[in-house]
Specification:
The protein has 302 residues and is mainly beta. The chain is 6% helix and 58% strand. It folds into two domains: 129 residues, Lipocalin, CATH 2.40.128; 149 residues, Lipocalin.
Length: 302
Amino acid sequence: MKLLILSILIFPWAVNAQQISSDFFFLEGLWKLPNRENFEQWRISGDTLSGVVFEVNGGKRVVSENMQIYKEDGIVSLYANVQGQNEGITIAFALQHVDQGRYIFENSRHDFPKKIIYKDISPDTLGVEVRGEDDKGFSYQMIRQSAPSLIPSWFLSNMEDHIGHWITDNSQYQSDQEVYDHYGMTWEWGIGNTSTVGRLYAFKDEEQSQDFWQFRQYWDNMDREGKLQQFGHGGVNGLGTVSRNKDGNFESIQVFSLPDGRNWVEKHITIFGAEGFTTTSYEQNEDGSWTKKRTYYWTKRE
């Protein structure tokens, strides 16, 4: 099993978990291979560093590897999970030695690489040596990129997964007051591919009817969280956050308001599957509990 390495970073030794974050402040941000559209993006959260490796192909972001650095049982390690390799298993490389700015992570049981050696060349340049048997391998450098914000990979993936035209059956909720047999959604990239814009509309007898909602999803650089805002008829609007819940699914919680002062809180949970995704809506009660409202399964329209 071979591990694809685009992890070109310097990992200083940390004596305890609390020091890991401060020692790795320099690492947070965006890094790029010279003359190639290959990137790494890292974020520090508490005593854990989370990284993602991706390339930009045809204006689209394609993720190939997810990584974490943290201390467990007294050992600081780099944990790498490469898509399509190692049967989905995360490979750990333990920090074994630090020598004059060279940080050596090693897993002697792995076929390749066995060592990942990082060197701090300058504040804007990172070097790496990737070594296998008999220390044979290769080396290269990455350059720090100026980036106004660090958008987490899970949030970008969530937006990318929504892009396209979607449709769902409304027969179980259809009535004299709600005559529509299907609903549709369309999501597109906003300017710079860092936000998305969408709309929800209805179908009656296979004919597209009126729009009901307009959406915008984006990463708030100041609050450092995902935001979802939407506008509907009669001046109603909703604004809230998008996050991942404990089950790894996407959850939005929004406060809705009307011009007459009325307001309420709703939650939506989105679960992606192989052929589409499911959305379930909830309304918050006065005691803070949630009442389930509707569930829709969305499939992509060609």
